[in-house]
Amino acid sequence: MTEDVRQASSDKSAIRPFQVGFPEAALGDLRRRVNATRWPEQETVSDDSQGVRLAMMRELARYWASDYDWHKCQARLNDLPQFITEIDGLDIHFIHVRSPHSGALPLIVTHGWPGSVIEQLKIIEPLANPTAHGASAADAFDLVIPSLPGHGFSAKPASTGWDPARIARAWAVLMTRLGYPRFVAQGGDWGAAVTQAMGIQASPMRNGAPTSIPYAISVFPGELYQAPRSWAERAYPHNLIYYNNLDRGGHFAAWEQPDLCAAEIRAAFRSLR
Description:
CATH class of the largest domain: Alpha Beta
Mean pLDDT: 93
Strand content: 15-25%
Number of strands: 9
Largest sheet: 7 strands, mixed
Order of helices and strands: EEHHHEEEHEHEHEHEHH
CATH architecture of the largest domain: 3-Layer(aba) Sandwich
Strand order of the largest sheet: 1-2-3-4-6-5-7
Shape: globular
Number of helices: 9
């Protein structure tokens, strides 16, 4: 990876432009190592009761070594405004896309573990420029999509302690640094834990429960846990502003069903504009 400007600076809060860049030699070495995998013996059953089947793993390795076009993905990332800034002693990478519509609502989106910002690429345009996707300009967002510490292009922590609560505090610093004192947040998987922590930290507590920060929940049928409305209403008795069950989509909703996911995000935060 490379930064456009990698100059020493006394201002640790500086926001530095960033571009993704890997030498072809590094990509070639990765393909060689994938192709050199020493495979175990085939499983003794005809189902997945003994784990992921050998044939599937071989096909997956073949795809990554032969078919996957990293240069295409890299170019897609580099078409977006990317930056790095130091927060709490760690370099944090993030995508920052400003909407062409005035009055856009700032939104920070957090990916899951062990994923990356690539999970969110498909929802950027529908959220930032809704009029090009059949929605209203009043539903536009300014998007901030950071890489979790140790993931993607963010720096790797040198010690323990970067739990969801600490990441949540870092995200609040990031949004303030970008000039967004008021914003909304969304996340799935590990990103949901970070988003939950942000809400707790920003809200006074009364009786596991925040009392002033609004919460919204979208339940996708392929999700690992599908929270029923009754649970959501008990978990957020004072501040659940939106709940909906969807008919398709799963754990990686932003990647699997980007239009549906974007529509849910618009609906969830509409009352807060």
